[in-house]
Amino acid sequence: MAGKRPAHMAHIRMMRRMLLVLQGTLVLLGAAVAQNPTSVDIDLVEGSTPGTLEVRVRPNGQGFSGIVSAVQFTISWPATSPATLGTRVQYCAAGFSLSSTPQVTASGTIFRTYSAFGFDPMSTTCPGEVWTAGVWHRIMTVPVNGNTGCTTFQIVSNAFGQPSDTNYFISLGGLVRPVSSNRRPCSSGSMPCRWRSSCIWKDPMTPVRC
Fold first, then answer.
1. Distances 139 to 89, 91, 195, 198 between C-alpha atoms, Å
2. What does the alpha-carbon distance between residue 136 and residue 151 come to, in Å, rounded to a whole number?
């Protein structure tokens, strides 16, 4: 949209500029790079408590217990649903505290972005939440409020209508890591959580839909 950009977009752009400064400062620390994960995956699943969603990450190559310099991800769901996301519960908030933007509706989809900065290592702020290589680790849960049917939620990047500069990314120790999303939408509502994969099926089958 032409004209003045929303305040949260300016905040996200400022966060990216700060990361570039951090990355430039630490780029010569080759030993630190070697100890970082090669990439970090993100996933969205139904929480253990009915009616909640759980965001989790998985470091690859190496575990991680240092500083989560920054992380950002966006959850989307259809605008036809009356559902909203409630108050989040974060794990290792002392290490990197997540905040959220207001909901944005565009192209028939609702988007909500979560982001955080971190300045202290997880090994000291929350030693029980450090990330083991190849293992999924919960970083946030959030309740789904006002849902009257079966609604599909997912973490998105470059989705149609998605606000700019809201893709998933993560920086560990000031160094941006390659990322990927499992792209497994989670359906929440009158039915248990079911998955629809965007991957090619190994065996012919029809993904379960609401």
1. 9, 5, 20, 24
2. 24
**Is beta strand 39-46 parallel, antiparallel or unpaired with respect to 84-85?**
unpaired
For 64, the 3-state DSSP assignment is: strand
Distance, CA of 82 to CA of 151 (rounded, Å): 9
pLDDT digits (tens, 9 = 90+) for 25-53: 444 344 344 478 888 888 888 888 888 89
| Global confidence as pTM | 0.74
46-101 pLDDT, tens digit per residue, is 888 888 899 999 998 999 999 999 999 999 999 998 999 999 999 999 999 999 99
**Distances from the Cα of 39 to the Cα of 1, 29, 151, 157, 170, angstroms:** 33, 18, 30, 16, 9
